[in-house]
Amino acid sequence: MHRRLRATLFSTFAVLPALGLFIGLVVVAHASTDPGNAPASQPAAAKAAAIAVIKNLRIGFHEANHPVSGPINGLTQVQSTNWAGYADTGSSFSRVSASWTEPTPNCSSRTTALAVFWVGIDGFSSNSVEQDGTLIECSGGSAFQFTWWEMFPTNSIQVVGQSLAAGDHITSTVTRSGSRYTLTVTDSTHSANSFSTTQSCSSCANSSAEWIAEAPSGSSGVFPLARFSTWNDANSSVTAGSTSGTISSFTDNEITMIDSSGAVKAQPGALNGSGNGFSVSWVRAS
User: Fold this and answer.
1) How far apart are CA 159 and CA 147, in angstroms?
2) Is the pTM here over 0.85, yes or no?
3) Which of 100, 172, 246, 266 has the least CB density, counted as fewest CB within 10 Å?
């Protein structure tokens, strides 16, 4: 999705505003017909209002990267104003994947809040991002959930599935072959939310791979982070050059989401023993 990926990264020795996306959106007509899917039963006007909020967010913009005093590969624990999760750095990344059970949001407040879960190539240390995943929007006290993809900065968020629900089983993958990227999200619970699209980018850096929970941004800055309790990333895999492995197979960076005062908003846990999964815990909205 197109959100301002304002990932300002900090280390003990350096500060790196890594990059930023502003959310924008083109809604693809692909609604679920599953009668048991909760979002499909929500009033049409409320759903339309939720989508309008996403449409009115600013369309993709990356802040310029700032120089750091040490190499990016030297970072192991960093902080961001809108990312929580893990990023691998290196070169020639060609595949990233993960699976998760879509979290259950708590939208008891009527404040508009969002949370995005995605995998992608690029974004940690470059001005391009090739990504896909799921999105939660709390609007008017109700939860709305979507599947989406994005090739930043070529286009804005492309929403595909509008009937995603808490508990759905998701697999998200980005695969590169030369300059062609295949972005695939599979919702094995409600198949109408699944998609696969192939896009081209000859200038993408392929310099990182990410597994991220994000608080997207609009014209006024970072939105409150929708309360999702815990996002459990699992079965994560990655390929760079001729090497395939897990998150821990490459130089990995653990990213904690903080607010402007340094208070933690979302906290990633340690990688599991196989190096292919972790959890992100919601701490505060803003």
Assistant:
1) 6
2) no
3) 246
